[in-house]
Design brief:
- The protein is α+β, with helices and mostly antiparallel strands.
- The chain has helices at about 5-10, 15-20, 105-110, 115-150; strands at about 25-30, 35, 45-50, 50-60, 60-70, 75, 90, 95-100.
- A four-stranded antiparallel beta sheet has the order 1-8-3-6.
- Helix 3 crosses helix 4.
- It is globular and about 55 Å long.
- The model has no long low-confidence stretch (mean pLDDT about 90).
- This is Cyclic nucleotide-binding domain-containing protein.
Length: about 150
């Protein structure tokens, strides 16, 4: 598996500075639900410190952690693609500090600066491909464990 792409380091310095002009610092205490699958995706974060678990609801009673994100990782990609609804849930696994970006101003910045927009979309696509592969692997592992225990 390839190393995960980091959003801020993937952007050239001038584009990174333009994006960071829209950031605000936030924090989440441990065990805080940051967002739920199906909720409105109107922002995203770049984690500065701590860890966040991405999860998928597989039954009404069970969530499966599909990835754990840490410093430098982007949290949330659904803000970029209509209908702007979260595909996963996220919870602070430890105290988290992050840069938060409101989606609408970032999308407007991408419209104004086509090169930044293209770079951002390519970077998010790389992150998305990596996360989907991690999710597939985790769900297959869960399926294999359940199948073995049922035999």
């Amino acid at each position: 598996m390839t190393k995960a792409t980091k959003l801020l380091t993937a952007l050239p310095q001038p584009q990174r500075e333009r994006l960071m002009s829209l950031a605000r610092e936030v924090s989440f205490p441990e065990d805080t639900r940051i967002f739920e699958s199906g909720g409105t995706a109107d922002r995203f974060w770049v984690i500065r410190s701590g860890a966040v678990s991405l999860d998928q609801q597989v039954t009404t009673a069970q969530r499966v952690t599909v990835a754990t994100l840490g410093a430098g990782d982007m949290l949330g990609w659904s803000w970029l693609f209509p209908p702007y609804l979260w595909d996963f849930g996220a919870e602070a696994f430890s105290p988290v500090r992050a840069y938060e970006f409101e989606a609408q101003p970032v999308r407007e910045l991408c419209d104004e600066d086509a090169q930044l927009g293209l770079t951002l979309i390519r970077t998010v696509a790389e992150i998305l491909a990596h996360r989907l592969e991690m999710t597939r692997t985790k769900l297959m592992e869960q399926y294999a464990v359940r199948r073995r225990s049922a035999l």
